[in-house]
Design a protein that fits this description.
By secondary structure, the protein is an alpha/beta fold. It contains nine helices and ten strands. Helices cover 32% and strands 18% of the residues. β9, α9 and β10 form a beta-alpha-beta unit. α8 runs parallel beside α9. The two termini are 22 Å apart. The mean pLDDT is 93.
Length: 244
């Protein structure tokens, strides 16, 4: 239950989907998937620990003649495996390829692999896609600050894709997203929000007047920057998650 939060990836994809396409969302964590739903295309985001379940869902839809797309970090790093279970794999970030992919499905010219580039200019995530499920989620809004990490840890899937790089969104977009949320508790979903310390300091200064509560994920090197830790606290940071 502690991780039952809005799935941000789905809201971003909803924002990227052109208006002529009808869409619906099933959250396998909180409801039964309707395998008989009237649809042409199924899109599933896949992490390594959800891959086996994702493949089972995909198989049931493909047995019904549906076209299946898979994306996410597992799909990015294991595209050959994914194509054993899906018709299309999106490697990398979907922002630069999603609309074209849908148009090419409609025209019958789609390819099995689409490679998206890093782009964080997607505007505001469209959370209306899970409006009917809000009562099942914790009152916490997920907000993306940036992607990547400045470390190159050999075990990490993030560095395997981003190769030690980090790119962040515009502060004005982040603030606008926070202001429009009905919740006052936020999870900044970055893997290492402090990869750009100068940017982080300015972000925290501008967040402080909003009087929110936020949590995020960090690497232990943040402990060396006492001034930044104090600024985090002043801006509303209540908890951090550290991976070992």
């Amino acid at each position: 239950k502690s991780w039952l939060m809005e799935p941000l990836t789905i809201a971003v994809l909803n924002q990227l989907t052109p208006g002529q396409y009808a869409r619906e969302f099933f959250d396998d964590r909180v409801e039964a998937v309707d395998y008989d739903t009237e649809t042409d295309v199924i899109a599933i985001t896949v992490e390594t620990y959800t891959a086996r379940r994702a493949y089972a869902i995909a198989r049931r839809f493909r047995d019904r003649g549906k076209l299946v797309i898979m994306g996410g970090y597992h799909a990015t790093l294991r595209p050959e495996e994914i194509l054993e279970h899906a018709d299309i794999v999106v490697q990398g970030n979907a922002e630069t390829v999603w609309a074209r992919l849908l148009a090419e499905i409609e025209s019958g010219t789609f390819q099995p692999v689409y490679k998206g580039m890093l782009s964080l200019d997607y505007g505001m995530p469209d959370r209306s896609i899970y409006q009917d499920k809000l009562k099942k989620y914790l009152p916490i809004s997920l907000v993306e600050i940036g992607r990547g990490c400045h470390h190159n840890c050999e075990f990490c899937s993030i560095q395997a894709y981003y190769a030690g790089s980090y790119q962040h969104r515009r502060i004005e977009d982040i603030l606008a997203e926070i202001r429009q949320s009905p919740n006052r508790i936020f999870f900044f979903v970055d893997d290492s929000i402090f990869s750009d310390p100068v940017f982080a300091r300015e972000l925290f200064r501008q967040i402080t007047p909003l009087r929110i509560i936020w949590v995020t994920q960090v690497t232990l090197d943040i402990a060396r920057d006492v001034a930044l830790l104090k600024l985090m606290k002043q801006s509303g940071c209540a908890m951090i998650l550290i991976g070992f």
